[in-house]
Amino acid sequence: MTNMLIRPTPDELEKDFSDGADYYVFNAGEFMANKHIPDVTGEVTVSINLEQRKMVILGSQYAG
Fold first, then answer.
1. What is the rounded distance in angstroms from the CA atom of residue 53 to the CA atom of residue 47?
2. Model confidence, pTM
3. Distance in angstroms (rounded) separating the CA atoms of residues 47 and 57
4. Which of 27, 35, 18, 33 is nearest to 54 (CA)?
5. Residue 10 lies in a domain
6. CA 19 from chain center: how many Å?
7. How many domains does the chain have?
C-alpha cells in the first residue's frame, strides 16, 4: 500500500489533520455482512452515514 500513496510530511499532517478526520472509514473486508439483517441483501455491503461522517465496508477486499 505504501507504494500507492504519497506519505504526507509532518507539517502537512499537523495542518490538515490537527482537528480530526473529515470522515471515518471502517473496513472489515474479510467479514461478510449478515443477510438476515433488514435491508442487507448480500454478503458485501457499504454503509454510509453522512450525518456522522462514517462509512463501514463489509465483505469486499477490492481496493482498486
1. 11
2. 0.61
3. 7
4. 27
5. no
6. 19
7. 1
